[in-house]
Structure formats: structure tokens, C-alpha cells
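Two proteins follow. First one:
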Amino acid sequence: MKWITRERPKIDRLACPWLIKRFIDPTAEIIYVPEPQVLDQARALDAIPFDVPGVEYSHYQDRCTFDYFLEKHHLQQDPALQTMALIVRGADTDDHTLAAQSAGLWAISHGMAFNITNDQELLDKALVLYDGLYSWAKHLQQQKHTTHPTERLFLQAYHQFLAQKKEHPQKVPAWAQHLKEIIQDQIDTNLTLTLKEVAEALDVNPAYVSRAFSKYFDNLSFGEYIRKLRIEKALNLLHTSGYSLAEVAYLTGFSDQSHFTRIFKQQLGQSPSEYLKNWRKK
């Protein structure tokens, strides 16, 4: 089967061919042509176009083409591919907050594209790169070289806070704990951004942004979308960091482990510990 896309690939147009060849169509022929020729050449060569506007295999909302391949070919059940999807999406959309590895993938991919001007040669090298990334995601995520320095500082502060709480325990009444959860739910709706700040940056009325937000962001409100991003970041940490659930909760902005567990279960239908147990069985 032939697959065709735009020339001079960087992220998605290398990651998707790797996915095609390794999981969908081992004998696939990948063709790169100038962007204006993709659709005409697809018809002439009986090839499937991808990662160009107006075709099935392309970007949707905040998802990139790699995500669509996973969904279309029912590959979401592979946890390693799910981990890779976050990394690829972060690199391809320039949102390096999605996964710690996204910035590195972006830098390496762009450097390779700068050094290698032949697209087929570049693809050959990229297949080795993505084989390595998949092996890391499947077998080596728990092996750590060094802890991210910012995370280490946050965790030091967190454990200091826990130690102080043990020294000076306070009984919190049920109503106050419930109020704390309500307040935290409100805090979750901004992360570090507010709709007003976003609207000012875009020079758009905040009320319009609020009304129109769900239309372009997975049918979610601003708060729900921020919550989803936090859970995606938590999934990446669960897959890659070896941190405890309490530490993951802290690093993703939740008030405590119980609040993290509650929102996680709302989003995924299972608690973080249940998710980890099922993921490790695969």
C-alpha cells in the first residue's frame, strides 16, 4: 500500500510512517512530494494521503495525525503507543508541557531534518529513532538517569510540608474538607491561566471565548479542558517517573492525593492505582 504526504518531514510525517510500517502495513511505501501535489499524486498513484488539510488522516482539534492513526487502527490499548502519542503531540504542536520528552524529540527531529535533505534517507534514520522511543516507552520508563531539577525542588518542598503536618496535626471537620474540595475545583478551572488573560492575549471578548471555547476544544469548557490536560500530564508521570501517587498529584496541581484520585476516576473511570495495576499487566 502507498501512503503520501508533504515533503520535508519533521515530526508527524516521520512518526506516522514509523507507526504505519511497524503496526499497520509493514510493506508500506511512503511517498513525499511538494504540498500542492499531494492530492493529485495520491489519485495518480492510488496512495493514501496523510497529514495534509482536508483528508481523513490529519489533525483534529488538539490532536495530531499520529493520534488519529492510533484511533483509526485501534492501537490505543498499547500503553507504550499512548505514551508516545503524548510525546509526538507535544513536539508536533509545540506544546512541550504535554510530555517531558517532547522538547527533546522536537530538537532532535529538526536537527536531523537540517542535516539530511533527502526525505527517504531521513525517514530511514527516523525509523531507528522511533524504534528506540517505543522500546523506552514499553520497557524502560522506570529507569531514571536524573530527576528533573524543577520537579526535585517541588518535591523537596512537598515532603517538607508533609513533615510539618505530621509535627503539628490538625483535625479538619467534614464540612471544611468538603469546602476545600469545592474551592479546589474552582482553582482547577484556571491552572495558571484565566479566561480573561487568554481573551486579552487574543484581543477577543472574554464572554465570547467562554461561549465558543467548547466548540473548538473537544466539546469541553475551559475548566474541563484544563482538567483534561492535568490528567494527561499525570498519565505521563505515572508512565515515566516512578513517583508516588501523592507526588504525581502535587506535581500536576491537585490539592492532595484524594482530590487527584477523585478527578482521575471521573475522567478515566478508574482510580490511579487501578489504572497503574491494569497498565502493568499489559
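Second one, unrelated to the first:
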Amino acid sequence: MASSFFALLDDIAVLAKAAAASIDDVVAGAGKASAKAAGVVIDDAAVTPQYVHGISPKRELPVIWRITRGSLLNKAIIIAAVMPLSIWAPWIFPWLLLIGGSYLAYEGAEKIWHWVHAKRGAHGGAEITHADADEPAHEDPAPASPEQIAAPALERTPTDEKQMVASAVRTDLVLSTEIMLISLANVDADSWLPRLAILVLVAIVMTAGVYGTVALLVKMDDAGLWMMRRRAGFAQTIGHGLVRAMPLVFRALSVVGVVAMLWVGGHILLVNLAEVGVPWPYDLLHALEHAIGGPAIVAWLINSLCSAICGLAWGAVLVGATGLFRRK
């Protein structure tokens, strides 16, 4: 009886070690798979705050939570769709990734086009007339007080919030599809169950990371306003700095998101063109890396730069083609 008991303990220990090894493999696989989707994640974090702009601060976190639930549902539906395809029609994924890479390249190039167009419009405004010159110069307004800055936004009705959440979840569906397809393409596991476990872990971690970051960013100005009302001068200084810095943070996040979209989109295009029988662009990139040589970081920078250029070039073609189609 005792020997059977100890044999059972040995079996449990072996199973526990195997389970721990499997968990380690899943975590490592999820980390590798999610790293390739960084560009989409940054863009998702940059896009989402616009959906809570202008609502009451007390409704910001509930709205973000509703969008988070919608994002998790999106990813669950996507995983349920792609897992059977990975078994019965794996050949379709390079084509889906080419579509996804084209979408990322298009989005990045379109945003750059809008920036350039807006800058030209700012410098190409109407000339100042004599009547305008005779107008007295407007004095700069006095700095806003914490009470003015903290003035409550217009309350939105439940219907408005429902439409806002629905719009955000629709946008998230496209970005979540990109995240899960890119992640699945970088999963090394051969069997079905580890692939499923890795995708589920990626979905949870990515969603928590994106919308947790969004919630933190959205509430940073509220934290700044709270500090501005403190008596301590040091706290007021930090509070003013937070309130003034957040627009710059969102602007920088938007720029980083565009660069990441072009880089990731271009890399997806190069890799998957080779998968569908067009290997020369990727071979040319590897030849360039070998010709320049140097440490690994140099090869990575060359690869990233060429991928971003490829993404920008193809995105510009798609933007131009879309513009011609709209004119017709």
C-alpha cells in the first residue's frame, strides 16, 4: 500500500513538471507571438482614447471597460474562426496576412498623407488683407484655473455611449484580427492545444495591456487636476505638467503607432510574399543585410528600415488607388 502511495506521488510530480514545462512553453510562445504584433497594439492604444474624448470623467472608465469586453469577445470569435483554418486550410494564412499587411500599410500611409495635407493647408492659407491688418491683435488668454480645466464635459445619453462603444468595438475587430493572425503566424507549437493556449494567453495579455494603458493615459489628466488643487507648490507644478503633457503624449503615441504600422505591415508583406511564391523582395533584403554586415543590431535596423519603406511605398499605392476610386 505504501509503495503504491509513493508511486502515485511520483506520477503526480512527473505530471506537475510536465504541466509546468507546458506552461513555460505557452508563456514563451505567447511572448514571441505577441512581440510581432507590437505595431498593431501601439496603434490600438493610440486610437482608442478618441472614443472617450468629451465625455464626463466619471463615465470614462465604464466606457473603456465596455470596449474591453467587446475586444475580448472579438478575439474569442477570431480564435474560434482561425483555429479550424489552421488545421484544414493553413495555406490561407499567408494570403490573409498579405491582406492584413496591406491594411496596416494603407492606414500608416493614409495618416502620413493627412499630416502632410494638413501641414500644407496650414502654410497655404489665405493672404492677410489690410482689413485683417487693421484689426487689433488679440491678447493671449489668461491661463485657465484648475476649475476651468476641470469643467465637466457634456453628459452623453446612454444611447450616445452605446453608439460610441459599438464604433470602438468595430474598429477593434479589425485590429484584433491583425493581432491574432500575426500571433498565430509566429506560433511554433505543432499540436492544436498549445496553439490554442498561446492564442488565448496572447488575447488576454494584449487586451489587458492595451486597455489598461488607455485607462491609465485617460486618467492622467484627472490625476494632474487633482494635484493642481493641492496646497503644496511641488504637487501643483507636477499637476500642471501632467495636464500640459498629455496632449503631447497622445501625439507622440500616434506618431510611434504610424511608424510601427508601416514597419510591421511592410515586414508582413515581405515575409508572406515569399510564402506565396514571390521570394525576390525578401531575398533582396537578406542580400542587403549580408552585404552591409556588422553586428546584429545593424542587420535589425536595416531590416526594419527596409520593411517600413516597403510598407510606406505599398501603402501610398493603395491610398492613391483608393483616391482615384472615390473620385469616380
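SUMMARY FIELD: The chain has eleven helices and no strands. Residues 18-122+155-327 form one domain.
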